[in-house]
Write a structure and sequence with these properties.
With 360 residues, this protein is an alpha/beta fold. 32% of the residues lie in helices and 21% in strands.
Length: 360
């Protein structure tokens, strides 16, 4: 079976009695309908009534990248999804435009996440820090792609800046128009490896998919000249099998990235330099704002730490703690409503619990 099936998935499948069900991988999500790859080819699928009912009690929808248990409907070219195999990784953000903490899955079972930003007026290191938090929390390996290098005269300087904010994370300058950096990127697309792309609208994700797959399968549009922003060319998530044997998930561009949680310690990893400097503060509970003897503020004044990076450190910290409080309120509401049927709650790390306690 193609599309990333391996001995680990074979072992996962055989752990349970699957009856007459067959495995398949979701390669496109259209809401209530899913395009699924199986040994018998691509089919359309939808959830069983039992799965839909389970969603009301906190289960998550199937997502692009999921391996699922299917009941194939003979002669109909479609199937019914009865279950989801345990996910290896899950890339998610907080669902935009909601008053409560709701997770929105972007893709699952991804090995490498390409964080794409274009080298035009949309270039933003602070946004990249947010994407890095999401990547580390998801359990995938991030790789930064600086696209549209043909539009930039100081690509090397910007690449060095990205390397400073993301120590140890590979950074590649690419241009599909000039065929720049293709060999380095193809090196990640080993057979069976699943790679996802994410970034803001117009950063060139669909162009990169076409470039690497040597096709024009993904529709692309130009950017607006006044603000270098894109027009949401990709409207749904889709997984493609590439000639190199790897798989790539293209996703719609994000106008904003609201962080969902920090179970994976992504925030602490992205801002490890500030956390390390903070150990030298006079007070153990220093918030790095106006406290006397703040080593972090001193580092900003000396130029060791970028002031904008510290602002983003504080901003994302507040956002994550606020999100945790919203989730805690929602959990308490569920507890009051029905204690007997509530699913086990996923607990946050003591790191964040201590942060909330320190701030009262």
């Amino acid at each position: 079976m193609q599309y990333g099936w391996n001995t680990n998935w074979d072992h996962e499948w055989s752990n349970e009695d699957r009856g007459l069900h067959k495995p398949g991988r979701i390669i496109a999500d259209f809401g209530q309908k899913y395009k699924i790859y199986t040994d018998e080819g691509e089919i359309w699928g939808e959830m069983s009534g039992k799965m839909k009912h389970a969603l009301q009690s906190g289960s998550t929808n199937p997502a692009v990248g999921d391996w699922v248990a299917l009941q194939l409907l003979e002669g109909e070219g479609r199937g019914i999804i009865h279950g989801i195999l345990n996910r290896k990784t899950s890339i998610s953000r907080q669902k935009a435009g909601t008053g409560s903490a709701q997770e929105q899955l972007i893709a699952t079972n991804v090995d490498i996440l390409f964080l794409v930003t274009s080298l035009n007026d949309d270039y933003n290191p602070r946004r990249m820090e947010r994407y890095l938090i999401m990547a580390w929390n998801s359990g995938v390996n991030p790789v930064i792609l600086l696209s549209k290098a043909d539009l930039c005269d100081d690509a090397d300087i910007k690449a060095a800046e990205m390397e400073m904010i993301a120590p140890g994370v590979p950074v590649h300058v690419v241009s599909a128009l000039e065929n720049m950096g293709k060999e380095a990127v193809i090196g990640y697309l080993q057979e069976g490896v699943t790679v996802a792309l994410t970034g803001s609208s117009g950063c060139g994700k669909s162009t990169i998919v076409n470039w690497l797959s040597e096709s024009a399968g993904q529709r692309t549009q130009g950017i607006r000249e006044d603000d270098s922003r894109g027009r949401h060319t990709t409207t749904h998530r889709e997984l493609f099998l590439l000639p190199q044997g790897g798989l790539m998930v293209d996703t719609p561009g994000m106008r904003e990235l609201q962080l969902y949680d920090d179970d994976g310690g992504g925030w602490e990893q992205v801002f490890a330099d500030i956390e390390a400097i903070g150990e030298g503060c006079r007070f153990a509970d220093c918030q790095h704002k106006n406290e006397a003897g703040c080593a972090v503020r001193a580092a900003v004044e000396s130029g060791e730490v970028d002031g904008k990076r510290l602002q983003n450190y504080l901003k994302t910290q507040r956002e994550l703690m606020f999100q945790m409080r919203k989730e805690a309120r929602a959990e308490r509401k569920i507890n009051r409503k029905d204690r007997s049927t509530k699913e086990p709650v996923r607990r946050k790390s003591s790191f964040w619990n201590n942060r909330i306690h320190d701030e009262g």
